[in-house]
Structure formats: structure tokens, C-alpha cells
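Problem: given the chain below (284 residues), write out its structure.
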Amino acid sequence: MVNMKSREFPMTDANFDHIKNMAYDRTGIVLGDHKREMVYSRLARRCRALGVHDFDQYIHVLENRESDELSHFVNSITTNLTSFFRERHHFEFLEETVLPEVFKANSASKRVRIWSAGCSTGEEPYSIAITLARFLKNNLVRYKGWDVKILATDLDSNVLAKGKRGIYPNSGADGLSKSDRLEFFDESGQGNDHQLMAKDKIRNLITFNRLNLLHKWPMKGQFDVIFCRNVVIYFDKETQKVLFDRYANVLKDPGYLMIGHSENLHRVSTRFNALGHTRYKKIN
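Solution.
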């Protein structure tokens, strides 16, 4: 075990256990002992910002109900690694198979809903929006006037704010094709200041909201597709079982679920049929 007493902000084993328990109670995230270095590094920034001298003082601030530190704590311990069209096979499957089936099934309501759960800084929902926009453009006459929306949620308010802005550095846009950049983004600046700003044609398809997946969900309608990728790896098996059961409950039939490349539903849920490449279809 690393000796934290020699660090800038002493962190005892009891401090770390307290932080682990609070993280689990508040977010469902499981912080194993191998995450101790990461936790220290991220929360040390909060200690500096608050002017506290050790983690005893930090925990005292964290437990003060009048403090807004809990929100900063959650933002600090959540990991937000994403990119445009990450795991591209999901978006190819969405465009070629899922959307034609979903639009046909919803011909009476003319309503389609997709949820990006754990959307991070927004690259995933914007990739979904681009895929949707291309599909609608290719079927303009047939689906003109349909009510099509994407819900993008995350626990971290900081990354949600970035998603809402829809502004990304050119250096982080490798997943976008040249044609997508031209059609769906405005560009400004040069060199290190070169930025891409999402155009209204995709921005208006997305609603960004803060949501703790383990708390009550305010959404009343059902979804046709849910993306929950590289999120449940932070949860234990029992929490995963509850979460995927809730996903099945809010998915239509037919309804599709996309999860991350390191995740699977084996011994977690029997309510989905595996289609390969971390793609699932609801069966009950």
C-alpha cells in the first residue's frame, strides 16, 4: 500500500474507505484499492481549491449539507473518455439495421426516442445525431415531420456543460469524416485554436440533462434505442442487474441496447438477445 502520509494531503486507510463508501452510496461506482492513486490525484485538486490540509478536513466539508462540494466530488471521481464515432460498428448498425426497423415500427406515432446514458462531453450523442440526420436526409419524403429526439444524460455536470456547448477542438475530431465536418459543423480559428461547433441541424436533436442512473428517472415515455457504453464497468454485478432491468423496462419492443466493448450481459440480464459486437435486442 502506498504511504499517503508523505503526500501533500495525508490520506489514511480510513479516509479512503470513507470516500469509497460515499462514492458507492451516491453514484454506485465501485472504487477498488487499485483506484487509490487516481482518487488521491483527483481529490487533491479539490483540497487545494478548498484550502484544506488533509482528507479528514476534506471529508468534513464533503459531509456538510450546506456545502456544494458533493457535486465537485462526483465530477472528480467520474471518468470521461470518449470520441466521435467511438466503436463505429454501433453507428453502422444503427443506420443500416436499427433505424429502418424502428421507423417502420413507429409509423403510427411518428415518434422516435434514443437515449445516450453516460454521454460524457457529448461526442456520443452528436455521433448519434449525425447518424440520424443522414438517415432522415436519405428518407426525406417518407419521414418528414417526424418527432425525433435524443436524450443525453450524465452524472457529471461539467461534461454536460461541454456537451451543451457543442464546441470541440479540431485535434479531438479524428472520428469525423471530412464530409461530416463540412455538413454538420462550423469551423473557426487556426492551429491550436481551431475549433468545431455543432450546427443546429444536429444540436436541436439533442437534450442534455444531468441524471444519476441509480436514482429515480423522470422520463415518462419509452425509448427505441439506448446507448450505455463503458458506464457499468464502474458498478458491481448487483447494481448492473438492477440497471439493465430498468433499461429493459423503458425500452420499446423492438428496442435495442448498445454497451461498451469491455462489457457484457452474461449472468447480468436475461431480457436481451445478444446480436454480437456488444449489440443487444430486448426480448421481454
